[in-house]
Amino acid sequence: MNRIRTQIYALTAAAAVAVGGAAVATAHAAENNASHHATDTALADDFGKVTGNTNWQLTSKLKLNFPTFHTEGIAFTPDHVFLSAVQILEPTVKYPTPQGGYDRTPGKGIGHLFVMDRQGHLQKDITLGEGDMYHPGGIDFDGKNVWVPVAQYRPNSSAIIYRVDAESLAVRKQFEVKDHFGGIVMDKQTGHLVGNTWGSRRFAEWNLQGKQLKTWDNPNFFIDYQDCQYVPNSKMLCAGVTNLPQTPAAGGTAATYELGGIAMLDLTTEQVTRDIPFQKWSTAGHVATRNPFKMTADGKQLTMRVAPDNGDEGNGTEILTYQATIG
User: Which residues are registered as beta bridge partners of 176?
Assistant: First the structure.
């Protein structure tokens, strides 16, 4: 199994964060390799050694210079970076009591799948969704296609599963499902798709025709998964966030804080095999795993890329790269 070995140079504190495409392009090399070798278990093995004390270093920031709205999921291919986002035109409003099985109004919005080159320059804006289904979720690249769920912006609703050819950018509506699914991966062992619902409380598995093969409840309540990726063999790596109550002295009776984390799930046993907290912060003050997330392994080094900030927050959306050496 050939893996790209990248030499790690010592950085001074002033130069520890490199802004721009060159640093990101270097870090992408291991990801390209991993995406073409479905039998490589390096990522699962290395993540299995991560602890709450693992030292993650921010190594680059790549600012995106176009409107990104509310970012959701990210995927990296040999030629492109894909970023899903939702543009809110009319926010949802909670009902005093549920109506028609829904807890809130549908709202209005536009679902975007931004296609960039590897330096973050926008090449195409693909609009996805139909009617009340305008909220893209976490996305994943299977080596050929980028899979994108686009759901209503409310639980217990509905979603469309899209397949986007990573080279031609042709879009195909694969099937519809009855529930809000906010993330999806392709299990290369089975050829099936696996998605997670609102708050990642439930998982479902489908064949490519949309037939549901099984469903199971999430046994873990640590975080709500926002963006996931397939990991050989038959594993799913997810990152996310949960908002927890804060002491009133820190901001009033309604104060909350963001708890971030990453979890590995075994799609065969349907169990969480490892989860860790991740409390690094974005320019706008969000926990780094708030939304878009992907991770790769290269030798003893893990590289994680996230994009937690919306386009109208802080310095706008930045793709942040973190790296950690695993002993």
Answer: 160
Structure tokens at 148: 């994108």
Q: Is 228 helix (H, G, I), strand (E, B) or coil?
A: strand
| Domain boundaries of the chain, sorted by first residue | 17-325
Rounded distance between C-alpha atoms, residue 144 and residue 166, angstroms? 6
Average pLDDT of span 162-176:
98
Quickly state the pLDDT bin for 33 (edges 50, 70, 90): very low
C-beta separation of 317 from 71 below 8 A: yes
What is the bridge-based pairing of β-strands 235-245 and 102-104?
Answer: unpaired
- Count CB-CB contacts under 10 A for residue 275: 17
The span from the CA of 310 to the CA of 319, in Å, is 11
pLDDT tens column, 194-204: 999 999 999 99
Segments in the chain forming alpha helices (H): 21-35, 42-47
Cα(322)–Cα(55) distance, integer angstroms: 10
CATH number of 17-325: 2.120.10
